[in-house]
Amino acid sequence: FTVHACAWARASDRRTALGRQGMAADDRSRSEAARQRRQDQLQRWLGSETDRTGLEARGERSAGGGGGGGGGGGQRARVRFAQGAVFMAACSAGDRDEVSALLRQGADINHANIDGLTALHQACIDENAEMVQFLVENGSEVNRADNEGWTPLHAAASCGFLQIAKFLIEHGALVGVVNSEGELPLDVATDEAMEKLLKAEIKKQGVDVESARQEEERVMLQDAMAVLAGRSTLSPHPIMGATALHVAAAKGYTEVMKVLLQCHQDVDSRDTDGWTPLHAAAHWGQEEACTLLVENMCDMGAVNNVGQTPLDVADENLVDTLEELQKKQNLVSFCPCGLTLCLLGPLLRLSLGYITFSRSS
């Protein structure tokens, strides 16, 4: 589940960037959201070690050329950076001679930065067709995904770089790969020509679009069933602290959630920002996920690290629903035997729950 939780690793940034946008978007809003996430990611790249390395390297070339003492000084300055960062900077600068030299010295052509971006991703974003060709012909992985599941083809499609997209497809790029939001390259395409190219390739490759978009949910359900059967274990994301239940709730994967709850996942587990699964479901507009969590007696008054309840961060279209769910949860009565009478929905539900009596209302 750590793999699935990688989608959560940038959630703190996206919460502000995406505002109160729901996950069930149409093609237009899906594309707009994708471009916003990419912009956020590129903004983080500015000022990063890779970016600073590139600026310093370009400054050295313009200031001192390649002569004796100046060259030695340049070498001493460069060794402060990891080889991967130097390689990424050289690719970004379009310096093929430097890139070739670094590859001969053992640089990893598929080195990724903190966001999972490789040099090929960056060349696609920069519309550097020559560098794209050079990297692919020298072994760069055309289907390598970054931390948010974006492949180089996603990047080219979102930027509208048609010739680069064609080249990637001709060299094995898959049009049926989805990112962490369940988006195909087609979903993030920005113009008609790109859409036409990708639709034609989807037909040629025989890709079932809807099936591809649902692949992550199927994999998560399969993994959850393995946990329930005792063949696997659950662990939160090592950095963000998010659980599989956070991810499933944010994406509205209710069948996955049901299995996870059978595995006794803590319905009020918190990530490092103090967000519970209900915060996630509410924020990303997942009504069914919210209802399921409330039925399982989640703490609707839980506050995150900045004092916000799920209602405070909820999608505006879910506010009324959450208020109604809160009223119904308040009607729940607890028997001494632990039998919970959940007055939720049209029918009276009897459920045996793992109730935490110390929760605050």
From TrEMBL:
Residue runs in coiled coils: none
Protein name: Protein phosphatase 1 regulatory subunit 12B
Intervals holding ANK repeats: 115-147, 148-180, 240-272, 273-305
A family per Pfam: Ank_2
Function of the molecule: Regulates myosin phosphatase activity. Augments Ca(2+) sensitivity of the contractile apparatus.
Keywords, ordered alphabetically: ANK repeat, Cytoplasm, Cytoskeleton, Phosphoprotein, Repeat
Subunit and partners: PP1 comprises a catalytic subunit, PPP1CA, PPP1CB or PPP1CC, and one or several targeting or regulatory subunits. PPP1R12B mediates binding to myosin. Isoform 3 and isoform 4 bind PPP1R12A, but not isoform 1 of PPP1R12B itself. Binds IL16.
UniProt feature, compositional bias: Basic and acidic residues: 25-41, 49-61
GO molecular function: enzyme inhibitor activity; phosphatase regulator activity
A Gene Ontology term for the protein's cellular component: cytoskeleton
Repeat as UniProt keyword: yes
Region feature (Disordered): 17-75
Major localization class: cytoplasm
Subcellular location field: Cytoplasm, Cytoskeleton
Annotated Gly residues bias: 62-75
